[in-house]
Amino acid sequence: MTDAPRTERGNRTRAKLLVAAEAVFAECGYSDASIVRITEAAGVAQGTFYLYFTSKLEIFEELVEDLNRRVRHAMTEAAAGSASRIESERAGFRAFFEFTAEHPALYRIVREAEFVSPSALRLHYSRIVEGYISGLGGAQQQGEVGDFDPEIVAWILMGIGEMVGMRWVLWGNEEAAGAPNDPTASGTSTVPQEVFEQMMQFIQRGLGAPSGGRQGEAVGVHSAGVEQGEDIR
Fold first, then answer.
1. What percentage of residues in the chain have a pLDDT greater than 90?
2. 8 A C-beta contact, residue 168 and residue 98
3. Helix crossing, 118-141 with 85-102: angle to 10°?
4. What is the 8-class DSSP label of residue 51?
5. CATH 1.10.357.10 residue ranges for the chain
6. Which end of the chain is more exposed for a tag (fewer CB within 10 A), N or C?
7. What is the superkingdom listed in this entry's lineage (predicted)?
8. How many angstroms separate the CA atoms of 208 and 199, rounded?
9. pLDDT of residue 24
10. Nearest-5° angle of CA 27, CA 32, CA 37?
């Protein structure tokens, strides 16, 4: 990353470039995206781009990291103050679905990272899983969940969130998407309440959490992997 001017104006310009990159990569894909398109979308001169990033790959990797920080922050903020692990899961998943509705590019960009920058993809998922492992381990110590391998369950929970979000947030409702297994994207929507509740019942049973939960200090605050005091900007 280049040494960009550390001024408020410079920070705003850099943020504008990342917002523009999110839109351009989502619309065009990595191959057809270009620095020219990104700078035009950001409303800045092409030369300005190089004050902040050295290449298209660098801004793509920074965008993956930026989206990761923001989604983890959204989930962590939502889960803060939860009285039990299952309440933390409920709040975190809601925040994830809301973030996905506001930033549908997250799915396409992260999936493209598999081919464009595998290391960025691994970092994205690893950061989320690390926090999940810590939260689940803490819940086990407090007797809130059953006896399982936190790492395995962390990946399972992340998979549930991704698939439910893709089907009901990205694809929309059945009328818009066609058949339930129709892979045609139809814009953003929300997860229906009955779908969300069935998902949470499944998760609660899978975690071995008691129906009423356990009151006390929330152990799921770090579910998304954002530690207290971490810079999420």
1. 72
2. no
3. 160
4. T
5. 64-226
6. C
7. Bacteria
8. 14
9. 96
10. 70
Cα 37 from Cα 225, distance rounded (Å): 33
Nearest Cα to 76, choosing from 130, 120, 119?
130
Q: Which two tokens stand for residue 68?
A: 């990761």
CB half-sphere exposure, 159, CA atoms < 13 A: 6
**Tokens 């280049």, residue?**
2
Select from 149, 161, 91 the least CA-distant residue to 125: 161
Q: What is the model's pTM?
A: 0.82
Kindly state the helix (H) or strand (E) to which residue 111 belongs, with its residue range. helix 105-116
The predicted-structure confidence for 4-63, as pLDDT tens digits, reads as follows 557 888 999 999 999 999 999 999 999 999 999 999 999 999 999 999 999 999 999 999
Q: Tell me, what's the pLDDT at 170?
A: 87
Q: How far apart are CA 211 and CA 98, in angstroms?
A: 25
Contacts of 168 (CB under 8 A, 6+ apart): 97, 189, 190, 191, 192, 195
Query: Any idea which residue has 């790492």 for tokens?
Result: 151
- What CATH code is assigned to 8-54? 1.10.10.60
Give the model confidence (pLDDT) of 89-122 as tens digits: 999 999 999 999 999 889 999 999 999 999 999 9
Amino acid present at 125: Y
What fold, for 64-226? Tetracycline Repressor; domain 2 (1.10.357)
